[in-house]
Design brief:
The chain is mainly alpha-helical and 270 residues long. The chain has helices at 2-33, 50-63, 76-105, 112-127, 134-145, 149-169, 177-187, 198-204, 206-233, 242-254; strands at 39-43, 46-49, 237-238. Helix content is 68%, strand content 4%.
């Protein structure tokens, strides 16, 4: 009788131990691993989430005039365009986070009226040329970018601080007559191209030319800063994280199957 009781106690102890182990694994997975599931990259120990990359993919596709259909087709031309968009988006996500961290260090903050203004501008732009209500076109645009309203608010806040930091860095940049001439010599064809009198074109469009030339000079300056920031902080940028490592172990070592691409960390910058 005592042997049966002891055997039962041992069985119950084993079951309890298994439950504790499973509970511990579940707790570790839930509390430690899952928070990393949607992290795209870490920059200086801060998490940048997948939604930032989704947003930037659309931004870069628009900037490069790459149709969204290129994201789903497999012909070589589309693959090349998609890779170009992906590389630009990835770099931009990292540059923005580095500027954002600089802005936070410099004490920049975001007021609610700034968020509201940025949101209204975005909504108006998404509503242009549509027959939908402003709110419906806004929702459709967020859906197309794979964003929730909360995700977008985080992006807006970060973008505002990024712009404040960029404005600070370029505040003392001014144009010289030499800068204006160099800019117009290179880009002046875009101002009234049908008018052969380039001096007249220059005179009539001088204010816009000044704005565009200053913008270009600031952009070139910021590009130089971006390259330096990337070089200086490369060791603190990682596309890997604990969740991806766990999933690689699960698929590879534990299950012995091929590892899905989504869990393989990127190893280089485009």
């Amino acid at each position: 009788m005592s042997k049966k009781i002891n055997k039962k106690k041992i069985t119950l102890a084993i079951i309890a131990a298994v439950i504790v182990i499973i509970g511990g694994i579940s707790l570790v997975f839930t509390e430690y691993l899952l928070p990393w599931k949607n992290v795209y990259v870490t920059v200086k120990e801060t998490k940048v989430y997948e939604y930032s990359m989704s947003y930037e993919m659309i931004e870069q596709a628009d900037a490069l005039n790459v149709p969204y259909s290129s994201f789903v087709t497999e012909d070589p031309k589309s693959n090349m365009a998609r890779q170009m968009v992906t590389d630009n988006a990835r770099n931009e996500v990292i540059y923005k986070r580095l500027f954002y961290l600089m802005g936070i260090k410099d004490g920049f903050d975001v007021a609610q009226d700034e968020i509201n203004a940025a949101l209204e501008t975005f909504k108006k732009n998404t509503n242009l040329g549509t027959n939908e209500s402003v709110e419906q076109s806004y929702k459709d645009e967020l859906d197309a970018r794979g964003l929730s309203g909360k995700d977008f608010m985080e992006i807006v806040k970060e973008n505002i601080i990024v712009q404040k930091e960029k404005d600070k860095l370029t505040a003392n940049i001014a144009l010289s007559d030499k800068d204006l001439k160099a800019y117009f010599d290179e880009w002046g064809f875009g101002y009234d191209p049908k008018n052969p009198n380039r001096q007249e074109v220059y005179g009539k469009n001088i204010e816009q030319i000044k704005k565009d030339a200053l913008y270009m000079k600031k952009k070139d300056y910021l590009t130089g800063i971006e390259k330096k920031l990337l070089a200086d902080n490369m060791s603190e940028i990682s596309f890997d994280n604990p969740y991806k490592k766990f999933m690689r172990w699960l698929y590879g070592d534990f299950l012995g199957t091929s590892i899905p691409d989504e869990y393989k960390p990127e190893t280089s910058m485009g």
